[in-house]
C-alpha cells in the first residue's frame, strides 16, 4: 500500500510542478513544515501530505524517517493539509499561513482504520531478466509445511531423498536464503531446511542463468529462498510446532523474533527438529562371468533406523549510523546429531558352490557444528544512488564421524552366526576454517545505465583425519595403517566481477557481466603433496530482454559456471560400509565447467499466465560416481571426471485462477540428454535419453468465511538414463487441509499415498549390473500449528550475502 501511494505521489508531483511554481509570489515566500507521529509519539515515515488552497492542489510531500515534511515558497493565505497513511483515516487540517509555519499531527486511536484491505495480489509466477520468481506466499503451500517441502514443489526444481537438488534436470544447484548462500549441502541442507516452518516464506526464485554478481559455483544454477520483510517500528514474531507420523514419529519447532526501535534492530531465531525414519533398501548385483568363485548374484536387503537432531539459530543486530550508513553483526549456528543403525543381509549365489549368507550390522554416530560470524557495512555514498557494501566473514566447521561395522557369516538354515568375517571401526573428524573479505559497489550512471562491480578473496583450510581400526573380540583394537590417513587441503580463491545494466527504451533492456576467478589448491596426504593446482577461469554472462505492450516478454540469456569437488571428495581415503563395499575419494578431481543458453517467453492474458523456456546446456569434465568391480567381487564407488553431458530442454509453466474458489498451476518439462565419456578408462559411457516430468498444484477454497482450504499436489518424473544409470519412475502425492483462525493456522496433511516416492536405479557398468530400490519412509500423516504475534509492521533484519557462504555448500 505504501509503495502504491509513493508511486501515485511521484506522478502527482510531476503533474503539479508547473502549476505550483506559477502560483508563487516571489515577494512573499513562506515555509510550511511539520512532523507526523503515531499515538506513541513515534515518527511515521512515508506519510503523504497534500497542500491545497480551495480546490487547487499546491503540492505534495512525503515524511522522512524522522516523520518530517516541508513545503517551501508558500504564498500567504488559507490552506488545507491532507494527511494520508496506511492503517489510519485520512486527516485534514486547515491553517492560515502568514509566515513560516509549523504544523504537527499526532495520530490517535480514533484515527485508526478498523480494517485495511488490499485487493491487489502478486501473480504466482513472475519472469524477471535472470530468474523465475514463484510467489509461494500467495499460495497455501506455506501453511503446515517446512521450507524443504516447499522447495521440492517449486516449478523447474526436483529433489532426491539424499538432499540432492536439480533444476530443469541438471544437478548441482546452489541454495541461497535471502541472498545468502546456505551453510550446508546434501542431507545436512535437507535436514536444516526441514526444521524451519514455511509460514514466513514470500517467494522462491529459480535462477538457471545467474548473473556475474553471484559466485560461479553451482552448475545447475541458484535457488534463492525469500522470506517476508516487514516495514515499520515495533516487535514481531512467530512460533510453530509440527509432528509427522511415518513408521515412527518426528517433531519440529521454531520461534522467531524481531524488534526495531529507533536506529537499532535486533533479531533472533531458534529452531529444533527431531527427524526419525525407518527406510528400507534393496540391492541386486549381477556379476560378470568369470568372477572369483563364479559368483553370479548378490542380493542385499537393508533395514535402517535413524534419528537426526538438528538444532540451529542465529542472532543479529544492526545499527544505523545515519540515514545513509548502517553497520551490522550476524552470528549463525547450525548443528546436527545423526545416529543410525543399519542391518544388511547379504546373500551370494554361486555357480558351483552353495550360497553364502552374511549379516552386516553398522552403527553410525555423526555430529557436526558450524559457527559463522559476519560483519557488514552498507552505505549510500551520494544522492545519485552510489552504494558500497563490505563483508568480513569467519567460519568454523567441526564434524565427528564415528562408525562401527561387524559382518557375521550365518547358517543358511537357521541364520545362526557361524563366525565373524570382519569387524572394524572408524573415526573421521573433519575441521574446516574459512575467512573471507568482499566488497560490492553499485553505480547508477543515469536512469538508463548502471554499473556494478566487486572484489572478493577467500581462504579455506581443511583437515581430515581418518583412523581405521580392526578387532576380533571388541576388546582390543589395532590401527589399520593401510586404510587410515591424514589429509590436509588448502584453497585460496580470488575473484573480480563487473556488470553493466542498460535500458535502450521502454521495450528493450540488457545486462552484460564478466566474473574472473583464480583458484590455488594444494593438498597433502600424510605430508606428501598430492594436489597442486593454480588455475584462472572467466565466466561471462549476458541477458537481453524485450517487453511488448501486450503483457508479453522475451529473455535471451547465456551464462557460464563451475562445479568444484567437495572438500571430502578430494581426500583419497576409503570408507567401508561392509567388508565388500567402499567409497573412495579422488584427489585428482578437476572442476567441471558448465555453459547454458536459454530463451524465455512470458505471456499473461485472460486464459492465464504462461512461461515458456527453451534451453541448451553443456557440462564439460562432469563429476560423477559409478559403482565398479575392481577386484575379488568388491564393489567400489569413486567420483571421477568421466566426460561431457549435453542437454536440450523445453519447459512450460501455467497458472490460472479458473474459478474464484479454484486456483491451478502446473509445470511440464521435456528434454533430450546425451552423456558421453569413459569411467576409469575402462567403462564406455554413451547414453541418449528423453526427459519428461509433470507437476500440478491445485488449491480449493472450501469456505472463505471459515478460513478452510484444500490443496492437492502431484509430481511425476518419468524414467530417464544418464551416465549408464537408469532412473525409474517417481510419483509424489500430497493432500493438505488448512484452517485459518486469525493469527492461528492449523494444517493437516498426508503424503505419498501410494508409496510411490522411491529411488529406483539400474546401473550397467560393462558386464556388471546393479539394481537398487530405496524407500525412505515417506508415506506419512502430519499436523502443524503456527501462531503469529506482535505488531506485524516491524522492519525485518537486513539480509546480506556473507563472504563465507560459497564454501559452506561444499562441506
Features:
single chain; 811 residues; mainly beta; Immunoglobulin-like; Maltoporin, Chain A; 2 domains; 4 helices; 47 strands
CATH superfamily of the largest domain: TonB-dependent receptor, beta-barrel domain
Secondary structure tally: strands: 47
For the largest beta-sheet, the strand count, sense and barrel status come to:
31 strands, mixed
Whole-number mean pLDDT: 83
Beta-sheet strand percentage? over 45%
- What structural class do you assign from the helix and strand content? mainly beta
Whole-angstrom Rg: 30 Å
- Briefly, what CATH class of the largest domain? Mainly Beta
Count of DSSP H/I helices: 4
CATH architecture of the largest domain: Beta Barrel
Would you identify the regions where 5 or more consecutive residues have pLDDT less than 50? 1-27, 114-120, 792-799, 803-811
User: What oligomeric state do the depicted chains represent?
Assistant: single chain
Approximate shape = elongated
User: Helix amount, in percent?
Assistant: under 10%
Distance between the termini: 43 Å
* Overall tally of structural domains: 2
CATH topology of the largest domain: Maltoporin, Chain A
Question: Can you lay out the helices and strands and say which pair or pack?
Answer:
Blueprint: H1 2-22, E1 30-37, E2 48-53, E3 56-62, E4 68-74, E5 77-84, E6 91-97, E7 101-106, E8 125-128, E9 131-134, H2 147-151, E10 157-159, E11 165-167, E12 170-171, E13 173-177, E14 180-181, H3 186-194, E15 201-207, E16 221-227, E17 234-245, E18 249-261, E19 264-277, E20 280-286, E21 295-322, E22 325-350, E23 356-380, E24 387-410, E25 417-427, E26 430-446, E27 449-470, E28 478-479, E29 485-503, E30 508-525, E31 528-547, E32 552-563, E33 574-578, E34 581-584, E35 592-605, E36 608-628, E37 635-659, E38 662-679, E39 683-703, E40 708-717, E41 720-722, E42 725-727, E43 730-741, E44 744-751, E45 758-765, E46 768-775, E47 780-790, H4 805-808
Parallel strand pairs: 1-7, 13-16, 34-37
Antiparallel strand pairs: 1-4, 2-3, 2-5, 5-6, 8-9, 9-15, 10-11, 11-12, 13-14, 15-16, 17-18, 17-47, 18-19, 19-21, 20-21, 20-46, 21-22, 22-23, 23-24, 24-25, 24-26, 25-27, 26-27, 27-28, 27-29, 29-30, 30-31, 31-32, 32-35, 33-34, 35-36, 36-37, 37-38, 38-39, 39-40, 40-43, 41-42, 42-45, 43-44, 44-47, ...
Amino acid at each position: 500500500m505504501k509503495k502504491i501511494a509513493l508511486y501515485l505521489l511521484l506522478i502527482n508531483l510531476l503533474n503539479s510542478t508547473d502549476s505550483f511554481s506559477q502560483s508563487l509570489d516571489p515577494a512573499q515566500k513562506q515555509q510550511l513544515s511539520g512532523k507526523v507521529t503515531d499515538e506513541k509519539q513515534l515518527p511515521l515515515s512515508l506519510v503523504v501530505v497534500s497542500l491545497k488552497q480551495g480546490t487547487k492542489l499546491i503540492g505534495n510531500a512525503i515524511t522522512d524517517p524522522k516523520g518530517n515534511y516541508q513545503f517551501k515558497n508558500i504564498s500567504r493565505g488559507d490552506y488545507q493539509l491532507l494527511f494520508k497513511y496506511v492503517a489510519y483515516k485520512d486527516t485534514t487540517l486547515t491553517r492560515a499561513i502568514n509566515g513560516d509555519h509549523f504544523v504537527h499531527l499526532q495520530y490517535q486511536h480514533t484515527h485508526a482504520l478498523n480494517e485495511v484491505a488490499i485487493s491487489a495480489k502478486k501473480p504466482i509466477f513472475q519472469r524477471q531478466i535472470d530468474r523465475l520468481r514463484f510467489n509461494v506466499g500467495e499460495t497455501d503451500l506455506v501453511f503446515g509445511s517446512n521450507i524443504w517441502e516447499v522447495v521440492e514443489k517449486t516449478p523447474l526444481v526436483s529433489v532426491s531423498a539424499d538432499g540432492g537438488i536439480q533444476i530443469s534436470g541438471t544437478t548441482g544447484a546452489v541454495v541461497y536464503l535471502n541472498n545468502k548462500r546456505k551453510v550446508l549441502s546434501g542431507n545436512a541442507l535437507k535436514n536444516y531446511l526441514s526444521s524451519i516452518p514455511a509460514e514466513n516464506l514470500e517467494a522462491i526464485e529459480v535462477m538457471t542463468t545467474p548473473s556475474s554478481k553471484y559466485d560461479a559455483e553451482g552448475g545447475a544454477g541458484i535457488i534463492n529462498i525469500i522470506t517476508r520483510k516487514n516495514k515499520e517500528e515495533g516487535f514481531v514474531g512467530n512460533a510453530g510446532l509440527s509432528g509427522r507420523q511415518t513408521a515412527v514419529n518426528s517433531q519440529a519447532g521454531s520461534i522467531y523474533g524481531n524488534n526495531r526501535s529507533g536506529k537499532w534492530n535486533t533479531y533472533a531465531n531458534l529452531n529444533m527438529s527431531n527427524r526419525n525414519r525407518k527406510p528400507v533398501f534393496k540391492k541386486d548385483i549381477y556379476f560378470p562371468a568369470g568372477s572369483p568363485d563364479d559368483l553370479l548374484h548378490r542380493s542385499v536387503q537393508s533395514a535402517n533406523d535413524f534419528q537426526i537432531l538438528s538444532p540451529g539459530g542465529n542472532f543479529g543486530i544492526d545499527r544505523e549510523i545515519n540515514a545513509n550508513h548502517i553497520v551490522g553483526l550476524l552470528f549463525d549456528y547450525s548443528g546436527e546429531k545423526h545416529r543410525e543403525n543399519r542391518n544388511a543381509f547379504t546373500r551370494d549365489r554361486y555357480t558351483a558352490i552353495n550360497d553364502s549368507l552374511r549379516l552386516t550390522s553398522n552403527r553410525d554416530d555423526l555430529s557436526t557444528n558450524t559457527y559463522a560470524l559476519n560483519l557488514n557495512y552498507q552505505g549510500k555514498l551520494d544522492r545519485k544512488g552510489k552504494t558500497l557494501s563490505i563483508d568480513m566473514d569467519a567460519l568454523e566447521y567441526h564434524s565427528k564421524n564415528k562408525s562401527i561395522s561387524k559382518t557375521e557369516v550365518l547358517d543358511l538354515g537357521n541364520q545362526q552366526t557361524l563366525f565373524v568375517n570382519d569387524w572394524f571401526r572408524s573415526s573421521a573428524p573433519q575441521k574446516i576454517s574459512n575467512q573471507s573479505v568482499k566488497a560490492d559497489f553499485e553505480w547508477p550512471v543515469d536512469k538508463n545505465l548502471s554499473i556494478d562491480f566487486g572484489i572478493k578473496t577467500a581462504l579455506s583450510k581443511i583437515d581430515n583425519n581418518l583412523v581405521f581400526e580392526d578387532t576380533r573380540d571388541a576388546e582390543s583394537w589395532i590401527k589399520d595403517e593401510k586404510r587410515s590417513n591424514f589429509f590436509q587441503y588448502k584453497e585460496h580463491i580470488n575473484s573480480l566481477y563487473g556488470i553493466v545494466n542498460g535500458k535502450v527504451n521502454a521495450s528493450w533492456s540488457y545486462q552484460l557481466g564478466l566474473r574472473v576467478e583464480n583458484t590455488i589448491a594444494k593438498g597433502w596426504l600424510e605430508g606428501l603433496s598430492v594436489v597442486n593446482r593454480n588455475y584462472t577461469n572467466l565466466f561471462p554472462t549476458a541477458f537481453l530482454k524485450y517487453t511488448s505492450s501486450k503483457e508479453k516478454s522475451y529473455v535471451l540469456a547465456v551464462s557460464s559456471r563451475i562445479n568444484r569437488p567437495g572438500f571430502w571428495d578430494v581426500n583419497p581415503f576409503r570408507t567401508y560400509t561392509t567388508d565388500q563395499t567402499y567409497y573412495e575419494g579422488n584427489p585428482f578431481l578437476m572442476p567441471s565447467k558448465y555453459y547454458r543458453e536459454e530463451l524465455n517467453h512470458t505471456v499473461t492474458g485472460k486464459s492465464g499466465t504462461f512461461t515458456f523456456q527453451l534451453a541448451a546446456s553443456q557440462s564439460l569434465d562432469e563429476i560423477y560416481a559409478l559403482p565398479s568391480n575392481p577386484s575379488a567381487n568388491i564393489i567400489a564407488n569413486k567420483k571421477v571426471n568421466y566426460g561431457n553431458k549435453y542437454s536440450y530442454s523445453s519447459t512450460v509453466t501455467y497458472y490460472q485462477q479458473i474459478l474464484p474458489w479454484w486456483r491451478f498451476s502446473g509445470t511440464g518439462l521435456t528434454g533430450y540428454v546425451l552423456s558421453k565419456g569413459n569411467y576409469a578408462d575402462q567403462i564406455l559411457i554413451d547414453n541418449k535419453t528423453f526427459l519428461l516430468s509433470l507437476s500440478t498444484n491445485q488449491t480449493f477454497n472450501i469456505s472463505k468465511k471459515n478460513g478452510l482450504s484444500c490443496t492437492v499436489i502431484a509430481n511425476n518424473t518419468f524414467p530417464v538414463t544418464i551416465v549408464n544409470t537408469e532412473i525409474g519412475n517417481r510419483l509424489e502425492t500430497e493432500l493438505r487441509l488448512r484452517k485459518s483462525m486469525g493469527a492461528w493456522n492449523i494444517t493437516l496433511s498426508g503424503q505419498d499415498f501410494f508409496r510411490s516416492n522411491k529411488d529406483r536405479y539400474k546401473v550397467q557398468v560393462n558386464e556388471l549390473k546393479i539394481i537398487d530400490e530405496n524407500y525412505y519412509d515417506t508415506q506419512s500423516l502430519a499436523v502443524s500449528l503456527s501462531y503469529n504475534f506482535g505488531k506485524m509492521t516491524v522492519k525485518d533484519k537486513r539480509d546480506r550475502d556473507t563472504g563465507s557462504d560459497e564454501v559452506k555448500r561444499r562441506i
